[in-house]
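Risk mitigation, structural track. In case the binding assays with adenosine-5'-diphosphate fail to produce interpretable data, a predicted complex structure has been prepared as a fallback.
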Amino acid sequence: SCSAGEAKTVVIGLAADSGCGKSTFMRRLTSVFGGAAAPPKGGNPDSNTLISDTTTVICLDDYHSLDRTGRKKKGVTALDPRANNFDLMYEQVKALKDGIAVEKPIYNHVSGLLDPPELIKPPKILVIEGLHPMFDPRVRELLDFSIYLDISNEVKFAWKIQRDMAERGHSLESIKASIEARKPDFDAYIDPQKQYADAVIEVLPTQLIPDDNEGKILRVRLVMKEGVKYFSPVYLFDDGSTISWIPCGRKLTCSYPGIKFFYGPESYFSQEVSVLEMDGQFDRLDELIYVESHLSNLSTKFYGEVTQQMLKHADFPGSSNGTGFFQTIVGLKIRDLYEQIVAARKATAPLRATKA
Ligand code: ADP
Ligand code: G6P
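Fallback model:
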């Protein structure tokens, strides 16, 4: 039988504004762990939780203390800490980490109300995704690894237009207004969390096309903190050097405006980081193996695993550029981190725990 210490859940935090690709990232992550994630069986159809064999993803909107009407009455947005119950968030994440099941509330995105709670059992890996995973210092302390998706305003705007205008029939003006309305609280409460992240994925407009404002071609930067336990940053060619690389040519097909990689050490909020950057997009996903073969420390289990994952989910948003590529890489690093934590625990487990 396992001691409580051995069963401990590994907790991952994923922070980003809504509509910034968290669910897409989660689909890539759970796929790396082998097995698609689905909502809990037989529960509330409006549950925000995703469960697979190894991983449970909970959405932190479930810790809204004020429902939609409550927020309206008080004049606070969902981003405002006053609309969220951090005490409960801390208690429940801590309980799950200690191997204890919890009755977690459900925020119903359709009705805007708080529904009756659902039972969440402690998984091997718990991902908490949402607006505030690194906001409360007590919750932050529980995280074994944290990620921040940093989507620049220009790109956020382009994605919102794409979705809300095309699919939801909103006007350009109303989309602009809703982004503007969120901005003060976003700057005050969401954005500052990136300084605590172990990895940040920054999504910016391309620099390959002068004055591009279409937001179709992206420059994506993977910022990886140095000195994080169980996490060693990916590098291009040589660890710690600075490199600019254009892979286009005989081995990689590139149409206009091409692809440009960059790698090097930098400083991020006064902390030492390594940055891997990709500007542009792939024409042919199968040729990604060429780029993959020049990267080191990818934590793959076999040659070409990144490329295989990318091909498997070619239909997900961001598969032809650095967003999908770096999300897949972070997924592999998290699998590695998880396996190292489990191995370290086994090594220090008391002898009586092993079978004779
Ligand atoms: P969230 O879970 O943070 O709300 P989603 O993963 O559902 O975000 O993505 C929201 C929308 O943003 C998608 O439907 C898509 O239009 C756009 N999007 C997300 N990620 C990307 C990406 N990497 N490239 C292009 N568009 C994206
Ligand atoms: C969720 C999302 C927020 C969004 C809110 C809508 O909580 O995470 O990003 O703003 O729903 O809130 P509203 O007050 O407009 O219903």
